[in-house]
Amino acid sequence: MNKTKLELEFKDQMGKKFTLSLDEPRDDVTEVEIKAAMDDIVARNIFFTDGGDIVAAAGARIITTTIDEIEI
Q1: pLDDT tens digits, 17-35
Q2: Distance CA 4, CA 21 (A)
Q3: Contact 63, 5 (CB under 8 A)
């Protein structure tokens, strides 16, 4: 069984990294859609961290994990 996760990385006012993780993103999600969503998150200023407001999108990645169940 494969599990996927979309990680969105942002920078806050202090330059620290803030990561938002989303389980099971659409298989056909595009870089353009991800960038637009991240820009919208920054523009709406909806998250606040210990280092202040989120000020920039820094990166994104999709992580795929393969899970093999073992019967014992």
Answers
A1: 999 999 999 999 999 999 9
A2: 10
A3: yes
pLDDT at 1 over 90: no
Query: Do residues 34 and 6 make contact, with C-beta atoms less than 8 angstroms apart?
Result: yes
43, two tokens: 């523009």
Query: Which of these, 40, 32, 66, lies nearest to 20 by C-alpha position?
Result: 40
8 A C-beta contact, residue 60 and residue 38: yes
Q: Look-up: residue for tokens 């989303």? A: 22
First to last CA, the chain: 18
Helical residues (DSSP H) of the chain, grouped into ranges: 31-44
**pTM of the full structure:** 0.86
